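Re-run requested by the PI after the first attempt was lost when the workstation crashed. Everything re-entered from the original request form. Ligand of interest: manganese (II) ion.
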Amino acid sequence: MTYRVVVIPGDGIGPEVVAAALGVLRKAAAKGGVNIEYEHCLAGGAALDQCGEPLPAATVAAAKAADAVLLGAVGGPKWDGVAPHLRAEKAILGLRKALGLYANLRPVRVWDALAPHSPLKAEAVAGADILIVRELSGGIYYGARKEAHVADAPDEAWDTEIYTAPEIERIVRVACRAARLRRKRVTSVDKANVLATSRLWRTVAERTAAAFPDVRLDHLYVDNCAMQLVLAPKNFDVIVTGNLFGDILSDEAAVLAGSIGLLPSASLGDGPGLYEPIHGSAPDIAGQGVANPIGCILSAAMLLRHSLDAKAAADAIEQAVEAVLAEGYRTADLYRPGLTRLSTEEMARRIEEEI
Ligand code: NAD
Ligand code: IPM
Ligand code: MN
């Protein structure tokens, strides 16, 4: 059979890291006997420029009909001034909604070769292995919001956070199932000392996890969690949290790994999955060929594993990444004297050769 993958390069470094990941995906798929047909689609600022809207209906239709979507990143200063409904970021929020992607898996792995280079103490981060399970289709991202003006000047604004018990139940179930395949611990993160949505979250998390007696559930307030993540990252196994907290904590957790350019993600629902690095379009380094493509390359590995049932090909990519890092190859974000500095493209080619 032939799988169909929609490819959305997006903006800034998006097209650079997607080109790199596609080379690696092609190599791993060919070697593993996985047949893939690719369709390139527009979204984000690139789509706004070409079609007048950040998420064209054709892109949504192609994504819905595909087996999986690989996305680079969207957004950038060029489009920061547009009306809220035209913002490049709307593309990604719209795609997540249209595909029903409620479970965002963000694995944070500290590769042995990188622990000594962490801004944190090597002994604190070496061996840390965390899976952040971020609720992706609800919460304050999708509640009603308002930006009111007085005499043409912005004057008052509000956003609302809504969570329902079924939304919390299904994401906590994803976390508990994932924990069963790992170290069987789930930390639920909320702000239940202040927020009503968080009190509901905690109650429903307790109730849901009770059906997984082999999994140990504990709770942390998000402010404490932010501290514990850098203080004692090895104490975490699976973290489950809402949309906004998961967004923030995963960028923080990227520091453990060494660079945000390393972190992949899978967004899953009941249909096709969407795979993207957790970083953005990095306008400060776009167009220079220096972006780290590993987050996007590992997203392609997650795509093979979760959407194309191709575990061996996914493993091959992850092993190649580990080997290339162990051999001292680095993009600019992780380069240190004595190691070998590679461009985005060179890093991708090195990983392809390793597969
Ligand atoms: P960012 O993640 O783009 O960049 C933050 C910092 O990390 C920058 O210094 C950047 O150079 C660095 N960085 C990011 N990816 C890197 C990589 N692969 N290799 C090396 N360094 C890397 O976050 P930002 O600057 O806050 O956002 C820029 C734009 O991206 C904004 O428009 C934002 O809305 C958008 N964004 C999009 C997504 C997405 O499409 N999923 C995610 C986050 C941010
Ligand atoms: C991410 C990004 C997005 C988010 C933005 C671009 C809407 O930061 O994927 O982490 O906040 O979810
Ligand atoms: Mn983010």
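Saved to the shared folder this time. The radius of gyration is 20 Å.
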